[in-house]
Amino acid sequence: MPGASSKAFWIDGPIMDIDVYYSPRHQTFIAVYLTIYADSTFYYRFLKAERPIIPCYAPGGDKNSDHVENLLKYDWSEEQVLYKAKPGLGGAFIYAGGIHTEYFGSNDVINGGTRLLLSWTAPTGQNPGSADSEYQIVTAEVNIA
After folding, report:
1. What is the rounded CA–CA span in Å between residue 57 and residue 62?
2. pLDDT tens digit string along 25-82?
Protein backbone atom coordinates (compact mmCIF):
# COMPACT_ATOMS: atom_id res chain seq x y z
CA MET A 1 0.00 0.00 0.00
CA PRO A 2 1.38 3.47 -0.85
CA GLY A 3 2.61 5.62 2.01
CA ALA A 4 0.65 8.60 3.36
CA SER A 5 2.87 10.99 1.39
CA SER A 6 2.39 9.28 -1.97
CA LYS A 7 0.73 11.15 -4.86
CA ALA A 8 -1.86 9.53 -7.08
CA PHE A 9 -1.17 9.54 -10.80
CA TRP A 10 -4.53 10.86 -11.98
CA ILE A 11 -6.94 11.20 -9.03
CA ASP A 12 -6.18 11.68 -5.35
CA GLY A 13 -8.10 10.19 -2.49
CA PRO A 14 -8.68 7.05 -0.45
CA ILE A 15 -10.42 5.32 -3.34
CA MET A 16 -11.16 1.59 -3.33
CA ASP A 17 -13.44 0.57 -6.24
CA ILE A 18 -13.68 3.06 -9.12
CA ASP A 19 -15.41 3.31 -12.49
CA VAL A 20 -14.90 6.20 -14.89
CA TYR A 21 -17.22 6.97 -17.78
CA TYR A 22 -17.77 9.73 -20.30
CA SER A 23 -21.11 11.54 -19.96
CA PRO A 24 -22.37 13.07 -23.23
CA ARG A 25 -25.03 14.95 -21.25
CA HIS A 26 -22.43 16.66 -19.04
CA GLN A 27 -19.69 16.66 -21.71
CA THR A 28 -17.10 15.48 -19.24
CA PHE A 29 -15.83 12.38 -17.46
CA ILE A 30 -17.39 11.23 -14.20
CA ALA A 31 -15.73 8.93 -11.66
CA VAL A 32 -17.93 6.84 -9.34
CA TYR A 33 -16.27 5.03 -6.44
CA LEU A 34 -16.26 3.68 -2.91
CA THR A 35 -13.64 4.76 -0.39
CA ILE A 36 -11.49 2.73 1.97
CA TYR A 37 -13.49 4.03 4.96
CA ALA A 38 -16.20 1.34 4.75
CA ASP A 39 -19.02 3.89 5.01
CA SER A 40 -21.26 2.15 2.42
CA THR A 41 -21.35 5.31 0.30
CA PHE A 42 -20.85 5.78 -3.42
CA TYR A 43 -19.10 9.05 -4.22
CA TYR A 44 -18.52 10.84 -7.49
CA ARG A 45 -16.31 13.50 -9.02
CA PHE A 46 -16.36 15.08 -12.45
CA LEU A 47 -13.52 16.35 -14.58
CA LYS A 48 -13.32 20.15 -14.50
CA ALA A 49 -12.37 21.23 -18.01
CA GLU A 50 -12.38 24.84 -19.21
CA ARG A 51 -14.69 23.86 -22.07
CA PRO A 52 -16.82 20.81 -22.92
CA ILE A 53 -14.91 17.63 -23.61
CA ILE A 54 -16.17 16.19 -26.89
CA PRO A 55 -14.82 12.85 -28.12
CA CYS A 56 -12.80 12.96 -31.33
CA TYR A 57 -15.36 10.68 -33.04
CA ALA A 58 -18.36 12.91 -32.22
CA PRO A 59 -19.55 15.91 -34.26
CA GLY A 60 -17.55 18.94 -33.13
CA GLY A 61 -14.81 16.81 -31.59
CA ASP A 62 -11.12 17.50 -32.16
CA LYS A 63 -10.02 14.84 -34.66
CA ASN A 64 -6.38 15.30 -33.58
CA SER A 65 -6.86 14.47 -29.92
CA ASP A 66 -7.55 11.47 -27.78
CA HIS A 67 -10.26 12.66 -25.44
CA VAL A 68 -9.13 10.22 -22.73
CA GLU A 69 -5.93 12.28 -22.35
CA ASN A 70 -8.14 14.81 -20.54
CA LEU A 71 -8.07 12.53 -17.48
CA LEU A 72 -4.51 13.73 -16.93
CA LYS A 73 -4.88 17.24 -18.31
CA TYR A 74 -7.60 18.61 -15.98
CA ASP A 75 -8.39 18.52 -12.28
CA TRP A 76 -11.23 16.61 -10.67
CA SER A 77 -14.03 18.25 -8.70
CA GLU A 78 -14.38 17.82 -4.96
CA GLU A 79 -15.90 14.56 -3.79
CA GLN A 80 -19.70 14.45 -3.62
CA VAL A 81 -22.09 11.80 -2.31
CA LEU A 82 -23.93 9.93 -5.05
CA TYR A 83 -25.72 7.19 -3.10
CA LYS A 84 -25.76 5.91 0.48
CA ALA A 85 -26.36 2.15 0.52
CA LYS A 86 -28.09 0.38 3.39
CA PRO A 87 -25.97 -2.18 5.21
CA GLY A 88 -26.38 -5.80 4.14
CA LEU A 89 -28.46 -8.33 6.05
CA GLY A 90 -25.58 -8.88 8.44
CA GLY A 91 -25.28 -5.14 9.13
CA ALA A 92 -21.78 -4.93 7.67
CA PHE A 93 -20.45 -2.39 5.19
CA ILE A 94 -20.74 -2.89 1.44
CA TYR A 95 -17.86 -3.60 -0.92
CA ALA A 96 -17.12 -4.41 -4.58
CA GLY A 97 -19.30 -1.52 -5.75
CA GLY A 98 -19.51 -0.53 -9.36
CA ILE A 99 -21.60 0.89 -12.18
CA HIS A 100 -23.27 -0.91 -15.06
CA THR A 101 -23.42 1.25 -18.16
CA GLU A 102 -25.89 0.76 -21.00
CA TYR A 103 -28.44 -0.94 -18.70
CA PHE A 104 -31.04 1.79 -19.32
CA GLY A 105 -30.56 2.04 -23.10
CA SER A 106 -31.09 5.52 -24.53
CA ASN A 107 -31.70 6.97 -21.04
CA ASP A 108 -28.42 5.58 -19.67
CA VAL A 109 -25.73 8.04 -18.60
CA ILE A 110 -23.30 6.95 -21.32
CA ASN A 111 -25.94 7.54 -24.00
CA GLY A 112 -26.82 11.10 -22.92
CA GLY A 113 -29.47 10.11 -20.38
CA THR A 114 -29.65 10.46 -16.61
CA ARG A 115 -30.04 6.92 -15.28
CA LEU A 116 -27.22 4.84 -13.79
CA LEU A 117 -27.27 1.34 -12.29
CA LEU A 118 -25.08 0.68 -9.24
CA SER A 119 -24.34 -2.71 -7.72
CA TRP A 120 -22.44 -3.91 -4.68
CA THR A 121 -21.86 -6.92 -2.47
CA ALA A 122 -22.71 -7.16 1.22
CA PRO A 123 -22.22 -9.95 3.75
CA THR A 124 -25.47 -11.53 4.95
CA GLY A 125 -24.14 -12.64 8.31
CA GLN A 126 -25.37 -16.16 7.53
CA ASN A 127 -23.28 -19.27 7.85
CA PRO A 128 -21.21 -19.62 4.65
CA GLY A 129 -22.15 -23.30 4.54
CA SER A 130 -25.90 -22.63 4.66
CA ALA A 131 -28.28 -22.38 1.72
CA ASP A 132 -28.71 -18.66 2.51
CA SER A 133 -25.09 -18.15 1.49
CA GLU A 134 -22.83 -15.54 2.97
CA TYR A 135 -23.19 -12.67 0.48
CA GLN A 136 -25.90 -10.75 -1.27
CA ILE A 137 -25.59 -8.72 -4.46
CA VAL A 138 -27.66 -5.54 -4.38
CA THR A 139 -28.51 -2.99 -7.08
CA ALA A 140 -29.90 0.53 -7.10
CA GLU A 141 -30.87 3.04 -9.77
CA VAL A 142 -29.71 6.63 -9.43
CA ASN A 143 -30.42 9.67 -11.56
CA ILE A 144 -27.61 12.05 -12.43
CA ALA A 145 -29.31 15.18 -13.71
Report:
1. 8
2. 999 999 999 998 888 999 999 999 888 888 887 778 878 777 778 888 888 999 999 9
Name every residue whose Cβ is closer than 8 Å to that of residue 86 and which is 6 or more positions away in sequence: 40
| Residue of 52, 48, 123, 40 lying closest to 82 (CA atoms) | 40
Closest CA to 24 of 132, 139, 137, 107: 107
Q: Which of 55, 76, 52 is closest to 66 using CA atoms?
A: 55
Question: 110 φ, ψ to 5°?
Answer: -80, -5
SS3 135: strand
pLDDT (tens digit per residue) in 113-125 = 999 999 998 887 7
Q: Report the distance separating Cα 52 and Cα 61, nearest Å.
A: 10
DSSP 67: G
Flag whether the pTM goes above 0.90: no
Distance of alpha carbon 12 from its chain centroid, rounded? Answer: 14
DSSP label at 38?
Answer: -
Give the three-class secondary structure for 73: helix
